[in-house]
């Protein structure tokens, strides 16, 4: 039996879509048929992505979003649902990292990582979940197709790494947040899961892999390679689809075996 993932008729909101993993996640969801709402603070970059998706025959929309601002979250979600329709899928991807030894961490850097990676992710999920729960309660029997929330954590949330201890702490919080949401919201037909990516080659770190430090790090990896953003597409699409109806509260490592 062959399995295909068809997200036609579904609306997906992707935070942090202006670059890196978020950019690829949006393309993958649109390629599977979803109407994708692209969200980040960098609206001009989102317009480039929208043009890319539409050029490939997909459906994309742009909304400005600052996950550190609760008012911006409420406004962005409301705007998305007014323009595109009810949000069925949330990819909670926006995140930041500041490299530093723990003894050198500045309060402002600590706050930046926890405000964006934990607080921001929580309140985006909360706003979307409130609307999903209301739809679940008001739906006629057999009409509620369920919601999907995919939180993007990190292998660093499962295995502490040097120089990014506070980032690791914030992503560990995202892992536990995922499980708490799955436990509380599952009864409303909302599945909440997390992906923990390993080292991925993105535009932000691409040059690093050609440096001495980058090559040294790559040599430490099980298969001495880093991943591509599109390597995460299969697990993302599965978690966003109806086929994942029995997967709730899962924390899935996609790190090429680094955490083994």
Based on the model shown, name its key terms.
7-stranded parallel β-sheet; alpha/beta; 9 strands; 260 residues; two-stranded parallel ribbon; Rossmann fold
Task: Please give a structural write-up.
42% of the residues lie in helices and 17% in strands. β1, α1 and β2 form a beta-alpha-beta unit. α4 packs parallel to α5. The chain is an alpha/beta fold and 260 residues long. It is globular and about 60 Å long. The chain is built from seven helices and nine strands, in the order βαβαβαβαβαββαβαβ. It has a single domain, classed as Rossmann fold. The protein has a seven-stranded parallel β-sheet, with helices on both faces. The protein has a two-stranded parallel sheet with strand order 7-8. The relative contact order is 0.14.
Instruction: Please name the CATH topology.
Output: Rossmann fold
Instruction: Compute the CA-based radius of gyration.
Output: 18 Å
Low-confidence stretches: none
Mean pLDDT: 95
Query: What is the correct CATH architecture?
Result: 3-Layer(aba) Sandwich
């Amino acid at each position: 039996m062959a399995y295909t993932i068809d997200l036609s008729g579904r609306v997906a909101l992707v935070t942090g879509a202006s670059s890196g993993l978020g950019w690829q996640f949006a393309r993958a969801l649109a390629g599977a048929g979803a109407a994708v709402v692209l969200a980040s603070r960098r609206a001009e970059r989102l317009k480039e992505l929208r043009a890319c998706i539409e050029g490939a025959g997909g459906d994309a929309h742009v909304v400005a979003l600052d996950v550190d601002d609760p008012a911006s979250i409420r406004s962005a979600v409301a705007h998305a649902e007014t323009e595109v329709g009810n949000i069925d899928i949330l990819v909670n991807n926006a995140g930041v990292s500041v490299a530093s030894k723990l003894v050198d961490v500045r309060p402002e850097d600590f706050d930046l990582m926890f405000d964006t990676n934990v607080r921001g992710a929580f309140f985006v999920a909360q706003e979307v979940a409130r609307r999903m729960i209301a739809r679940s309660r008001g739906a006629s029997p057999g009409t509620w197709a369920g919601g999907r929330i995919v939180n993007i954590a990190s292998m660093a949330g499962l295995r502490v790494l040097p120089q990014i201890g506070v980032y690791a702490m914030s992503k560990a919080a995202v892992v536990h947040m995922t499980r708490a949401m799955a436990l509380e919201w599952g009864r409303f037909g909302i599945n909440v899961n997390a992906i923990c990516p390993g080292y991925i080659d993105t535009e932000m770190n691409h040059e690093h892999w050609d440096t001495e430090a980058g090559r040294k790090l790559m040599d430490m990896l099980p298969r001495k390679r880093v991943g591509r953003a599109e390597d995460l597409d299969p697990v993302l699409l599965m978690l966003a689809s109806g086929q994942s109806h029995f997967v709730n509260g899962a924390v899935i490592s996609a790190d090429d075996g680094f955490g083994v």
